[in-house]
């Protein structure tokens, strides 16, 4: 449960504890600045959650499952074959921790529960009766992707002259970028050149960070990848989080069974909050590396 923030903290800030709108706004502002692990200190799972029962409002078992193209298993299979040189190149781009991914299974029922509990308008999630704000900084902390100062800019046209070299490399006969074609390129790459870097980012977007409801990857992603040296300076955390917000919102508004976005983030967010304070994971590791199948299996029995 969310504990009351101690009055002493608020008085130290020159504020009095009052149950009014000003106090609520101040608490919300303070809450927004906390990291996920800090938020978890104020959260205690109900006995039902400790037993792995994630039922909420009585509707989890009644809700149909979801389908997602978020595939951590596929991603991990590919990156596990990379050479030391290629891993070093990924580190240079700021995605080195991402390839330490341990959780390779999407729990569809759990993700459906989390999506049903996620309010995209307020960017908050209700877990076992308690509401927690979720923001791009949580995505950064959990998924360990760069949070550079520049926006991932997809404006422009792929028909621009300087796009032709990339289009010639990545678009096949179908006129699309497919995940199998990217895997072929990565598995056949002997060096960690620009093409390797672009292929890796496209794979990460298509299988983990921003998977859509299609089997193809958005061509416009190439607009942001024209200069591979600039990749680490882009704000991929915000871009991916907003993509998830849009995907969940569209899913709730439509009759589709497919949801776009990184549902793995929601799953790991849940693990990290519910499992906080237990001796289930090695807290010295990044969250994305700490929660594997064994650890999550102990939490979700």
Automatic annotation (TrEMBL):
Protein name (Swiss-Prot/TrEMBL): Aminotransferase-like plant mobile domain-containing protein
Q: Which top-level group of life is the source organism from? A: Eukaryota
Q: Which PANTHER family match?
A: OS07G0283600 PROTEIN-RELATED (PTHR34835), OS08G0555500 PROTEIN (PTHR34835:SF34)
